[in-house]
Design a protein that fits this description.
There is one protein chain. This protein is an alpha/beta fold and about 500 residues long. The strands form 2 sheets. Strands 5-4-8-3-9-1-10-11-12 form a 9-stranded mixed sheet, with helices on both faces. A 3-stranded mixed sheet has the order 2-7-6, with no helix packed on it. Pfam families: Dynamin_N.
């Protein structure tokens, strides 16, 4: 919905102008051609967070397979990329050696690759190609633990912002130290364009509430409270509570796993409960259980102690088949909500987010290698950021979620929906049934345009409210134009 030149056309044109400007610099032209190629590739989503925040587990849950982490990686700076491929394979990259194919084997905890010959700190990236439907739309990046150094910088986050189009930022509870990492990413003009490219994930949701069965409900309540926090909402497009461990268990639980859980569920509660007080009691308890020690350990590894208690309770309360238990574990884990948020904020806006990444890359190059003509191109970057309606929608979404616009609750919800906060399709934006007729869509869009134009022209409203209303009006105009062209 860009006024005048479409966003993809504007970015494509900017890249070719930059290629012409840097035609005598092989390094710069290689970098710009790389950015051109990225526009045609799947969206890159980095999974970022501090140590033991559950990055690899969540990545596996999203993919629905146990692939990450790559075992044998010795070095805290290695990024592991997961891309779609016909067959499983892995390639190692460093700054001092040509790419090297690695021997691949599936291990009990992920993927095992042969890294013999690589010295610690020498490896920069491992690209894993794995055949799965999820990776046809997304490239997932498993990153090293992040944090803020003594100079107040976040080196891992700096690279993430250069390489990724969107970010899942994992945190146990959204503490100040975790938020500071995100705040360091808002310094450049492009970095300030919007926070919608970030979803904060409360990734240890199963640990909330002291391990009680309702802990996941408590975690979702915490996520909603954090989303209302102005500091948090300024840094992200959404906050989602999700237990990667429970979600992954739901996606890969086997019939033998279910049979073992069903056997435990049939035990009298007074007899079983003492063994569920700790992991050690469950695996090594003196009172016999209807499972071998190895099977108990495998269940505990798959579900964790909280997940084990939850699964047994679910089986007892009617989820009496593998399929039923699987679906309920996934639902309760928060994985479905996370995938919906990723679809709405990331996949539906993939072209906009990739354009944003390209603008950031061009801006960085122009500032790092200034010369004749670079100021003009920097002005073009700013012009695209300010003028492209897609970016104006993202900025308004961030402002609405942080409460900076000042609309009342009802208007805020409507504005968010009309600018694509609930999905970018016409039906989602207009809040009508997905199979609504073109006439119905046109009627609702025209009515919304009229109402929001009235607000945009109301001198009694604050400037921020009138400008926000103008963005909504332009979104409505774009929908009407799309319907006029035969869109649905």
């Amino acid at each position: 919905m860009t006024v005048g030149l479409r966003l993809d056309e504007a970015v494509w044109g900017l890249l070719h102008e930059a290629l012409q400007l840097y035609r005598d610099s092989p390094r710069a032209t290689d970098h710009l051609r790389y950015q051109l190629a990225r526009l045609e590739q799947p969206l890159r989503v980095a999974i970022v967070g501090p140590w033991r925040s559950g990055k690899s587990t969540l990545l596996n849950a999203i993919m629905g397979e146990e692939v990450a982490p790559v075992d044998g990686v010795d070095g805290s700076d290695v990024f592991t990329w997961y891309e779609d491929g016909a067959q499983p394979n892995a390639t190692a990259y460093s700054t001092s050696h040509p790419p090297q194919e690695l021997a691949v084997a599936k291990s009990a905890t992920g993927m095992r690759v042969d890294l013999v010959g690589w010295r610690a700190g020498e490896l920069r990236d491992i690209v894993v190609r794995w055949p799965t439907r999820t990776l046809r739309q997304l490239t997932l990046i498993d990153t090293p633990a992040t944090g803020v150094d003594e100079q107040g910088r976040a080196p891992v986050m700096d690279r993430v912002l250069r390489e990724a189009d969107a970010v899942l930022y994992l945190t146990r509870d959204g503490r100040d130290s975790d938020l500071r990492v995100l705040e360091t990413s808002r310094e450049s003009a492009v970095g300030q364009a919007a926070a919608v490219h970030v979803i904060i994930v409360l990734s240890r949701a199963d640990e909330t509430g002291g391990g009680r069965i309702d802990g996941l409900v408590t975690a979702r309540q915490l996520a909603r409270r954090q989303q209302r926090d102005l500091r948090v909402s300024a840094l992200c497009g959404n906050v989602v509570a999700c237990s990667g461990l429970i979600g992954l268990a739901g996606r890969i639980i086997s019939e033998s796993d279910f049979a073992a859980l069903a056997g435990l569920a049939r035990m009298p509660r007074p007899e079983l409960e003492p063994h569920l007080l700790s992991a050690d009691r469950f695996v090594r308890g003196a009172v016999p259980l209807p499972l071998a020690v190895e099977s108990r350990a495998a269940l505990l590894d798959r579900l964790g102690l909280f997940g084990l208690r939850l699964a047994i309770t679910l089986v007892r309360t009617g989820f009496d088949s593998r399929a039923k238990l699987s679906a309920e574990l996934i639902r309760r884990s928060g994985l479905t909500e996370l995938r919906e948020a990723m679809a709405r904020l990331f996949i539906d806006r993939r072209d906009t987010l990739k354009a944003r990444s390209t603008l950031a890359a061009v801006e960085a190059l122009l500032r790092a290698e200034p010369g004749r003509g670079t100021d003009e191109l920097l002005g073009r970057v700013e012009q695209i950021l300010v003028g492209a309606h897609e970016f104006r929608e993202l900025r308004l979404l961030a402002a609405l979620r942080s409460g900076r616009v000042g609309f009342d609750a009802e208007l805020t919800v409507e504005a968010q929906r009309l600018v694509g906060g609930d999905g970018v399709g016409l039906a989602a934006r207009l809040g009508v049934e997905h199979d609504a007729t073109a006439e119905r869509l046109w009627e609702v869009a025209a009515e919304a345009q009229w109402r929001w134009r009235t607000r945009a022209e109301d001198p009694m409203l604050r400037l921020a409210q009138r400008r926000g209303a103008e963005v909504v009006v332009r979104s409505c105009e774009g929908m009407i134009a799309e319907l006029a062209e035969g869109g649905r």
